[in-house]
Amino acid sequence: MIKGANVALADLSDSVGSVIVSLGWASPTGEGDADVSVLLLDSSGKVRSDSDFYFYNHSVAADGSVQVLGKTPTADGSEDRISFDLTAVPAEIDRIVVAASRYDRARFGELEDVRITLADAVGESLLRFAVDDADSVTAVIFGELYRRGEEWKFRAVGQGYETGLAGLATDFGVDIEDDAATDAEAALDAAEGDERADATALAPAEELARQATLEAIPAPRRPEGEAVEPKKPTARPRTAKKKVTLPKTAKKTLAENDSWKQARLFPVSVLKSDRDREMRATSVLLAVMAQVPEFSRRLTAGFGAPAGRMETFTEVSLPHGDSPRRPDGVIRVERAGKLWTALVETKTNGNALKADQVQAYMDIAARRGYEAVITLTNDVALEGSPLVDVKIDKRRKHKVALWHLSWAEVAYQAQMLIRHEGVSNAAHAWLLQELLHYLQHENSGCHGFQNMGPAWVPVRNGIDDETLCQGDARALEVVESWERLIRQVCLRLGGELGQKVLPVQRAKRGTDPRERRNRLADQLCLDGRLQAELRIDGTPGVLAVSADLRTGKLRTSIEIPTPEQGYPLSWAKRLVRRLAEAPADLHIETLVDTETGGPRGTLERLRPEPADLLPKDNGTKITGFRLSLLKSMGSGRGNAESGFIRSVDDAVHRFYTTVVVHLDTPTTRRAPAKERTTTG
Q1: For residue 597, is it left (φ>0), alpha (ψ between -120 and 50) or beta?
Q2: Do the beta carbons of residue 398 and residue 367 sit within 8 Å?
Q3: Checking DSSP bridges between strand 543-548 and strand 600-602, what pairing results, if any?
Q4: Which residues pair with 503 in a beta bridge?
């Protein structure tokens, strides 16, 4: 589409009751990102109240009409996905604005391939609009969904704002108190800058900053002429409903000793075969989904399922040729008298999907008018590399979508809800806790990706004896397994931290994911290394992971920039001071603007003499510091204690918890009001 163009959704697909809107971009540095937001507008072109503004911290509408699904890795970056159930949008809403904003004074011109795409309920891409003129802006309206009579249309907008989210929100009836926000940031900066101040003396300043920040939250604008009522000491609409999470510290057990095992809702000790594990895992998951709406919406909204009453079933017999088929499960959602149905096929313990089995379920779903087939296995799906190939009969009018979930993704969503974001009541939190305990038990078979594949050992041997040649298909298999492993590491770490953790893809715009993996496979043949980068919210840099198959070493590292103010010696002293509890064998290297490289040493040696980090030539400019940890990697292809998968997971976890957590968190600053202007 071009800027300003519009199209009726019904002209593009028959399945537009629910749609998925994706906002995407690529970052040359791997660190650029933006936050998506959605505004529901009435006939006046304004939000009705603060609850019509959706973003990462207010991501789900109570009626299910909007759900911000979060980020999904793509071949050249990541996409933010938003699920819209257009049948559930309130009648007084005329327009839905989809936007994104950058932070810390960053501009959209620093990103590449800024675009919005829209897919129907079966996942078929319907349209794409590239925002090409967003160089100097900090916020962009990508597009909008709007009513025309009984149908919905989409318009490509591409309007930029130099005023960021504040200017955008103000245009649609949300008040932004910039002065209060600026005062809050100044108070916080002052508190952080005085390292030697007493903690008790900081408390009043921190409280003032907190109050000022709360006052700076957007408030709904009142219609002209309406009387202003006195403020009531009540919570704001989007935070009024209390959420339940698990306590940070476990209660003291009443058991006499460790041999007493706590009773569990979903026991796993009796599971003896893979078939038992598949049946139990399917039943446990679907039962919890039916009882915990917040959880089920997290898993199914991205598949086009509407928000409504859900029922789940197992071992349903469906006719197919001479013999009936029994999918592992069925999910059915009812809304406004209409049904959405998905067949579920699960595998556990690393077992692979069978193409003929999935093909049969796709054919059954098409004949019976079902909307989707969902596969659920230990593997993480990759873009451009499907886990199973199926044939779609394009002569059929009814379309069936094929979706995939990994057990790691299921566990991640459960962790995010019960440990960080909360659910509506304690019973739901307990059910999710029991589900998570079941998934993480060693006998459940639901541990996520757990095998590097049959090519792992031959590739390692080929690298050792230098017989592995470029173009070898086995190298490509290992690269794909490595990418799946990194995706799983991101899910586990993100679930534990409650933050976004995404793999960084440094690829050129429009790069085919298969071409990118082929290049990585050739590089593996040349230097024997597997490399990846992780972007973690709230960290000062990208976490890099490198597995050297020649030396058998894993390296985890992060590069941090130098502060904008101060002197090199004070930087070095502060860094060593921040790393007081980090491992003594941590390597620190000074990054300089010359090819010779800067000083380096272990933390143990640098603690008494931080000045050793400074170049001998005072004219050499320091650009940053690189922190690295080395450890031996596992050799086995599986998920055993001595296996490669476990060693990578442990290395990333250790590096983050012992090094990264001690580093300064990057601050986000709001541009002064006088610098803000709106561009069309």
Answers
A1: left
A2: no
A3: unpaired
A4: 534
Mean pLDDT split into 10-residue runs, the chain, 680 residues: 92 88 82 86 90 84 86 75 90 94 84 90 88 86 93 93 84 62 39 38 41 42 46 39 66 83 84 89 95 92 87 92 90 89 94 91 92 93 80 72 92 91 88 94 87 92 92 93 93 90 75 85 94 90 94 95 89 93 94 87 94 89 94 86 90 95 66 34
Residue the block writes with tokens 């999907």:
353
| Cα four-point dihedral sign 9, 13, 15, 18 | negative
**Rounded to whole angstroms, what are the CA distances from 175 to 50, 151, 180, 209?**
10, 31, 12, 19
- C-alpha–C-alpha distance, residues 209 and 151, integer Å: 47
Residues contacting residue 48 through CB under 8 Å, at least 6 positions apart = 40, 42, 92, 93, 220
**149 Cβ partners below 8 Å, 6+ apart?**
none
- Residues 555/628, Cβ–Cβ less than 8 Å: yes
Nearest to 193 by CA among 667, 672, 538, 562: 667
Contact 68, 60 (CB under 8 A): yes
Which residue's structure tokens are 């809304």? 335
pLDDT given at position 499: 84
Locus of tokens 């290297």: 589
Classified as helix, coil or strand, 140 is strand
